[in-house]
TrEMBL record:
Keywords: Signal. Residues 150-409 form the Neprosin PEP catalytic domain. The keyword Signal applies. It comes from the Eukaryota. The gene is LOC120281045. InterPro entries: Glutamic_endopeptidase (IPR053168), Neprosin (IPR004314), Neprosin_propep (IPR025521). This is Uncharacterized protein LOC120281045. Pfam families: Neprosin, Neprosin_AP. It comes from Dioscorea cayennensis subsp. rotundata (White Guinea yam). Residues 1-19 form the signal peptide.
């Protein structure tokens, strides 16, 4: 009798309050629990650092292999080949390049480190209807007529350098040193990021394939205002496929100490100590997988298997480098700061910087992007700007970007 009364009560009560005032229906709560079970695999060991929980998961039982295309995937433990010249100039920023990864210990051999997803994070993601748009590359038919994202209560702006758009261009990877800043002043509806984007949607417009790699501050995704190492991927512009970090099956983790989504500390300060990350992503010529490698020491983080993609399974046709910022929800707080929160003309140690920008060609060579084949784009120049490409140690590979943001115009 008691069980029957409880069953009836559960169906009569439409929702209940969880945590920070989120109203969940019973069906939503059950779905969240189901997703948590899928994402958070059984841990052989658990490590807690800076308030985050990291699970050491059997490398063969990680979430990637829940993807239907990866059921029989053979794990690639290391790239078959490194692009020529990719790591030759990392010493330029050796004093600024920071260690990213677990500080106290690494996961045991045979396991990989995966940041545990908290229930609150999934709830915020579920209620965020445009949660992936904030990582999308700028879609534009030309550099002079961008299509800004401004949908209902969602607004996003860019300050980037980008390659031309067109199927005649081909890229097999990219790399850059990205200055890292903290932006604790952001509200829980604002986001601000520094990324590079690798994309291809020229052969099949239904498959807007892209990889996004860099850092972000996004309370609505991570539940705090830490600056975090962030990635995302999609095969169709985030309509049905892809996600941030490892929040859906896809990315194959191989690192025992560098998890996606980890907080980056310390961060740069205005006119003070400067820090940054050096990130490389390239297509393995043998397996065609897209590898993510960190720093001059060639630390292997993992890879996106070639089977995840349609257009990127062949090559990329566009690259973007720079920042994006915006908000979702009520625009009361306006557009947030981007980069360091200062315009690029303030220069070194004050504005956020990209350096050592490279692309990988079909011959697996790491090369400077030709200056005459890059275009600057500042979608809201009153608030955000991208500075000129300048010469750094003999190569034209440096630019500053960012701005303070400001109120949203009516």
């Amino acid at each position: 009798m008691m069980l029957a009364l409880i069953f009836i009560w559960l169906h009569l009560v439409p929702s209940f309050v969880f945590g920070n005032g989120y109203n969940l229906t019973i069906e939503e709560d059950l779905e969240i629990e189901r997703q948590l079970k899928l994402l958070n695999k059984p841990a052989i060991k658990t490590i807690i650092e800076n308030g985050d929980i990291y699970d050491c998961v059997d490398i063969y039982k990680q979430p990637a292999f829940d993807h239907p295309s990866l059921k029989h995937h053979k794990i690639q433990l290391r790239p078959s080949y490194y692009p020529k010249g990719l790591f030759d100039e990392n010493s330029l920023n050796s004093s600024k390049l920071m260690h990213v990864g677990l500080q106290s210990e690494r996961c045991p051999k045979g396991t990989v480190v995966i940041k545990r997803v908290r229930k609150e994070e999934l709830i915020m993601g579920m209620r965020s209807t445009l949660k992936h748009s904030k990582m999308m590359m700028m879609h534009s038919s030309s550099s002079s007529s961008p299509n800004l994202v401004h949908i209902n209560s969602f607004e996003q702006q860019w300050a980037i350098w980008h390659t031309p758009y067109g199927e005649n261009y081909e890229y097999y990877g990219a790399s850059a040193f990205i200055n890292v800043y903290g932006l604790p002043q952001l509200t829980n509806t604002q986001f601000s990021s520094a990324f590079f984007w690798i994309g291809n949607d020229d052969d099949d417009k239904d498959h807007s394939d892209q990889l996004v790699i860099g850092w972000t501050v996004d309370d609505s995704v991570y539940g705090d205002k830490n600056t975090r190492l962030a990635t995302s991927w999609t095969d169709d512009g985030f309509r049905r496929t892809g996600c941030v970090d490892m929040r859906c099956p896809g990315f194959v983790q191989v690192s025992q100490d560098i998890p996606l989504g980890i907080a980056i500390k310390p961060v740069s300060t205005y006119n003070g100590p400067q820090y940054g990350v050096h990130i490389s992503v390239f297509k393995d010529p043998a397996t065609l997988n897209w590898w993510f490698v960190y720093g001059s020491e060639k630390k292997l983080v993992g890879y996106w298997p070639n089977k995840l993609f349609t257009n990127l399974s062949k090559r990329a046709t566009k690259l973007h480098f720079g920042g994006t910022a915006g908000f979702e929800g009520y625009p009361d707080a306006g557009l947030p700061p981007m980069g360091s929160g200062h315009f690029p003309d303030e220069g070194a140690n004050k504005a956020c910087v990209f350096q050592q920008i490279k692309y990988i060609n079909a011959a697996q060579q790491s090369l400077n992007l030709p200056i005459d084949e890059l275009y600057p784009l500042s979608s809201y120049p009153n608030y955000y700007k991208v500075g000129p490409l300048t010469n750094s140690s003999g190569t034209q590979d440096t630019f500053y970007f960012g701005g303070p943001g400001g109120p949203v115009s009516s």
